[in-house]
Write a structure and sequence with these properties.
It comes from Faecalibacillus faecis. The protein is mostly helical. It is built from three helices and no strands.
Amino acid sequence: MKEFFKSKELWTFVGGAVTAVVTSKFAKSNKARELAVKGLASGMQVKDNVEATVTSIKEDAQDVYAEAVEKSKAQ
């Protein structure tokens, strides 16, 4: 019986089963939902900031291009 409890496979199985149960319980908890909503909101905010930055860069590039075209026509 001692050898059974020294088995690496047994403890790997037990550890996996405990991890599965704990993860399942946590996934169903209100705290997990709160964290998921906060993560989603944060991700949406980052997306909005990136889109605003890209739009600003695009507008600046268009302005520089338009100025270059005007300069080349003036010469």
